[in-house]
Amino acid sequence: MKSYKQTLDFLYTRLPMYQRTGPAAYKDTLENTLILDKLFAFPHHDFKSVHVAGTNGKGSCSHLLASVLQEAGYKVGLYTSPHLIDFRERIKINGEMISEADVVAFVDQFRKMNETAQLEPSFFEITVAMAFDYFRNQKVDIAIVEVGLGGRLDSTNIIRPEVSLITNISLDHTALLGNTIEKIAFEKAGIIKASIPVVVSEFNESYNKVFESVANEKQSRVYFADREFKSDYSMYLPEGKQVFNFNKDGQLAYPDLKMDLLGNYQRKNAAGVLKTIELLQEKGWTIGNKAIYLGFSNASKNTGLRGRWEVVDNNPLVICDTAHNAAGLTDVAAQIEATPWKTLYLVLGMVNDKDLDQALAILPKEATYLFTQAKIPRALPAADLAAQAAAFGLHGQAIPSVPEAVAKARSLAQPEDLIFIGGSTFVVADYFS
Fold this sequence. Notes:
The protein is of the alpha/beta class. 39% of the residues lie in helices and 18% in strands. It has two domains: 300 residues, UDP-N-acetylmuramoyl-L-alanine:D-glutamate ligase, CATH 3.40.1190; 123 residues, Protein-Tyrosine Phosphatase, Chain A.
């Protein structure tokens, strides 16, 4: 490859990419991943890891864990998806993105090797191989590895982690993972490894038995974090953070635990992260309370995470959130309800392969909607979204691009109003770009 731009063109246009084209890019086998791993001399054997899966919250949990371990003095790899603006956001070490030169070098190396191997990998398979090779070459102490989709057949699922973390389960990607909570839980439980402890952030009668069954089969202990770590409330601080008091088994364990990731839903993620940290400590990782407090307080700053109830402007208040399914948008709707505003404007866009009915049913009816669409093939046309939303009493106008929709909302809003931008990760990405 001659340039980084040409390399990205190859990755984006020559390889199937789920985020852009949807289920057609999904691979239901680890065959290519295993071949790629062998081509690059099994890089995942050369670093420790934590594996993070779940329907919602896995990005926040991954970044929180990376931030805490970084504050503890470790060299920490972080693999996440999708990215918002720059492809390199997916692969970081101590908050620093992989260099353009390293991306180009890896793709060049793959293409030369592939003259013999003749693989037809997906975008995600190549990206996972790139991350693992980079973490090995850079000699990270530990990598936090976020599952892309599901778990059992995800390309990341060749690692043997120190701990596995599963955030929660709800109905999403049902065409690929199954149309019941139990089936989806089984796919997520695929990251549970023999004799490796697994943390589940949220106890839920509808799926906990699936995790218990798989863990028992693998002779692994399963811990439901919210049964040990609880916080009944959070308080927002003028400095733009929120603070929790976390009890463990009924005793105050983490008083005044500040987070720079906002949203009441972060208490669920925090419980899973705190339990995962405890298990890492038991395995010999040196993680003191100072590192935990600094890691939580500076998670966004340390890792570059964006789009989690992120306040991007004031007067009017403008907030972005990447929640994109019914469970995530339920949390967002509750957060909107708890936020003061005089008039509410929602800049909303969604993708065309989701079951929208549940999501649309829980969104606030008293809002003025600016229905829009992201610049990806999967985007549901703004006019189609407006028509479907009208059946649920959600009304507004269709505007064909995110920047235009946001500009329209700003032109209508007064200083005491709230503008929310979301419905899809890609809507938020279009706003930031």
